[in-house]
Amino acid sequence: VEEGDSEKARDLVSPLHPADIADLLELIPSERRADVAAALGDLVGAEVISELNDYVRDDLIGALAPEQLAEFAAELDTDDAVAIIEDMEEADQQAVLDAMEPEDRAAIESALAYPEESAGRLMQRDLVAVPEHMTVGQVIDYLRDNDDLTRDFWEIYIVDAAHRPVGYSQLSWILTCPRGVAMADLMKREQTLIPVDMDQEEVALRFQKYALISAAVVDRAGRLVGMITVDDVVHIISEEAGEDILRLSGAGEGDINQPVLLTVRTRLVWLVVNLGTAMIAASVVGLFERTIEHLALLAALMGIVSGMGGNAGTQTLAVMVRAIATNQVTGSNTWRMIGREFRIAATNGAALGTLIGIGSYLIYGQLGLSLVFATAILINNLVAGLAGVLIPVTLDRNNVDPAVASAVFVTMMTDSMGFLTFLGLATIFLT
Amino acid sequence: VEEGDSEKARDLVSPLHPADIADLLELIPSERRADVAAALGDLVGAEVISELNDYVRDDLIGALAPEQLAEFAAELDTDDAVAIIEDMEEADQQAVLDAMEPEDRAAIESALAYPEESAGRLMQRDLVAVPEHMTVGQVIDYLRDNDDLTRDFWEIYIVDAAHRPVGYSQLSWILTCPRGVAMADLMKREQTLIPVDMDQEEVALRFQKYALISAAVVDRAGRLVGMITVDDVVHIISEEAGEDILRLSGAGEGDINQPVLLTVRTRLVWLVVNLGTAMIAASVVGLFERTIEHLALLAALMGIVSGMGGNAGTQTLAVMVRAIATNQVTGSNTWRMIGREFRIAATNGAALGTLIGIGSYLIYGQLGLSLVFATAILINNLVAGLAGVLIPVTLDRNNVDPAVASAVFVTMMTDSMGFLTFLGLATIFLT
After folding, report:
1. Residue B93 shares a structural domain with residue B213
2. Does ipTM surpass 0.90 in this model?
3. How far is B53 from chain A (nearest CA, A)?
4. Which of A191, A357, B125, B350 is deepest in the core (most CB within 10 A)?
5. Helix A402-430 and helix A367-397: axis angle, to 10°?
6. Final residue before a domain boundary, out of A59, A86, A117
């Protein structure tokens, strides 16, 4: 559509929401993206840039002058501007900052001073804070008279003389109360304060748990320094929850806009690590080469033992990784979880073992083989259940992300133990 | 702590947020939960019940009288009350509804008339809607004078004479404007309307995409019937994103509070389905029993071929499942995705094949074996890459959830094709 006819493309795109324009740009093959963006001109504004996928944005802003980027950054809330600038190279970052107004620059520089993925990067500085003694009427007059206040906020914070938050009020409470009511009587004193260095994942969990719309961010001295609103947290909640599946499978970020070579590198590292565990499993099989020469059927069946264990282990692992990520696993219920998974593994192992034992007896008519097969299935299910709980819990206690590292160990256990029990029992009882 | 000393337990628990009390109840072993809840008495109120995990709630509300539940439901927003009542058995549901005030009952019954997991179940009926001609001052007076309005809202909707929404205004815009401004001049006309029968997953995606705080829900005639607020959507976003990992691994809901027997049943079904694919793979190996009798080493190495393919397939699958779930895959970029994954698979396959070929030559010193090994690894990587894209995309086009069904097919492909290429090539070239 956009070939040459930029007038028409502009007409089609102009009624769209910035998020939709960003989606559209992401769908265009990367080699034509810059041309399309140029044809759309000022329709690709600050908000569109801010909505773009990181990699697509990198593609596009390379072509922009620092002055243009500085202008975009000034239009956005601090947190959105920081999100764009934090990904840039040091030198480009400096060029953009130099082109900004001193006030905007100070806000962004102080945000960049906080660690990546912390509340300090996520918060915006524009917020409304009033002292406790003000009345509803005074607050409304203050809001009407101050043109330089932000126009987008959902709650206002009530602070003491040292600028420490003592409570908050939803705007709806202010709007439904007579002018004479004091903020001290209207506000809610129980509030969820976010320390400025809190990790964004933890921030997202608090928003979820307490159903927050916005929250005050405080520095170490307890002073109000910013606010985080739920719309900035929503994409973190979704990313963090979706990330586990990608990490567990070793797919890295799993971003479909990531350059191919970067993706190859991430995935290859994971495959090579798994090659190591596959070699360990292979060497277990190697121990039993004699047995297999005698009874090649074992080679066909051993994959069922290791595969079933692998599946059961992955099930337990997925449940545990989600439970840990949502803070559902604590010291007090770890033993209960282990007991629960052990019972599930024992029941499933017994059921599958029986099914496979009877099935294989009907097919091959060898009682010894079927008993060995069924026993190996049961044992490997128990191994899978225990490994599926103990490995992520242990990694988590040692501050290793269980989503990243668990799968390798669990697979190693289910593969190696599956081969060891099946071929080991077969060697003892069948040859 | 709670043994007998209910006075002390109440003192400890009373300053907590309802969400924290709910968490505490979830941590208590199920057999002691009812006693603790009884000891806490009215601290376990409507909000705590509403925050509880479904299974834990079922445990606790079994003991409550319908009148008590009706009272709880009346205290909550429609959507939270519906969430509690929709999970109950038909007869219990009716008993609770009978015990409610007619007005509350009507609201809940009409919500229950919408399909499960639809916007209609998620929305609340209490909202503020005003006609276009009102001024800011009139709206504020209206809000102050009507005591029966909800106290918790973030935006108000502007409707025409037929009660169709024509725009919305954030409360902050109303608070920062002089009394004389007409709502028609203040409101934003571009708004995201949610049809009452929209699936909750789609609702969550819209909230995410457009960074919504609340949205108007309309019936088929376009009339305003309710509103959904972001706090009700946040847990859906997190659940939907976290669900994929559980579905992909066949762990069902993955709820750690689910009764063990129900969990066993869900997981066992998955394991039996996978047993089928494992048997297909085993039968492929069975075709080559002769080859394996000759060269038992193949039995040890074949697991590396299938395993590497399985890992690569899972990586691609995880990326595709997330991309599909977040609406990033459309007709226009499917081919681009296939091309991308093919290039990644070819690069990784070549790298792994080379590594494994050279490695195995150094270990075993058999050039033929190493060439067969390397070729099989490369081919199986390509199979994995293509299956990892094509299977979820095809399932999605046929309205089957790719997270649930893809893994079985991908594993079947990588296992069977891995064995087939490796053992097949070995049979041709090595025996």
Report:
1. no
2. no
3. 11
4. A357
5. 160
6. A117
- Interface probe with B: pick from A192, A271, A288, A335, most Cβ of B within 10 Å: A271
CA B415 to chain centre: 29
B238, B260, B336 ranked by CB distance to A340: nearest: B260
Nearest residue in B to A305, CA atom = B278
| Inside any domain, residue B246 | no
Is there a single domain that holds both residue A133 and residue A94?
Answer: no
> Are residues B158 and B214 located together in one domain of the fold?
yes
**Together in a domain, B218 and B325:** no
Quick check: A299 and B301 CB within 8 A? no
B282 shares a domain with B165: no
CA distance B392 to B322: 10
**pLDDT mean by block of 10 residues, chain A; 431 residues:** 67 85 85 81 84 85 83 85 86 88 87 91 91 94 88 93 95 93 93 94 91 94 95 85 84 85 91 93 94 93 95 94 88 89 96 96 95 97 96 94 90 95 95 79
> The tokens of B429 are what?
């070239």
Give the angle B352-B357-B361 at the CA atoms, nearest 5°. Answer: 150
Residue among B216, B214, B257 nearest B23 (CA):
B257
Q: Residue A354 is part of a domain; what is its CATH number? A: 1.10.357.20
User: Nearest by CB to A237, which of B210, B234, B321?
Assistant: B234
CATH code, domain with A94: 1.25.60.10
Whether residues B297 and A286 touch (CB distance < 8 A) is answered with yes
Residue B101 placed within a domain: yes
Picking from B202, B412, B239, the residue whose alpha carbon sits closest to that of residue B317 is B412
Q: Are residues B333 and B397 in the same domain?
A: yes
Residue of B nearest to A234 (CA): B208
Phi, psi for residue A258 in degrees, rounded to 5: -70, 140
| Closest-CA residue of chain B to A178 | B144
For residues B239 and B233, give the distance between their C-alpha atoms in angstroms, rounded to a whole number. 10
The tally of domains found in chain B comes to: 3
Interval B192-223: pLDDT, tens: 999 999 999 899 989 988 989 999 999 999 99
Given a contact cutoff of 8 angstroms between Cβ atoms, the answer to whether A237 and A204 are in contact is yes
Tokens of B233: 């959507």
The two tokens of residue A10 are: 């502009």
| Domain closes at, from A209, A232, A255 | A232
Of A208, A242, A250, the CB nearest to B235: A208
Kindly state whether residues B100 and B135 are assigned to the same domain. no
A124 in any annotated domain = no
User: What range does the domain containing B162 cover?
Assistant: 129-241
The candidate with the shortest Cα–Cα distance to A380, out of A429, A419, A407, A354, is A419
What is d(CA A116, CA A112) in angstroms, rounded to the nearest whole number? 8
Structure tokens at B384: 């994995």
Rounded Cα distance between A355 and A359, Å, is 6
In a domain, A289, yes or no: yes
The span from the CA of A69 to the CA of A89, in Å, is 14
* CATH code of B142's domain: 3.10.580.10
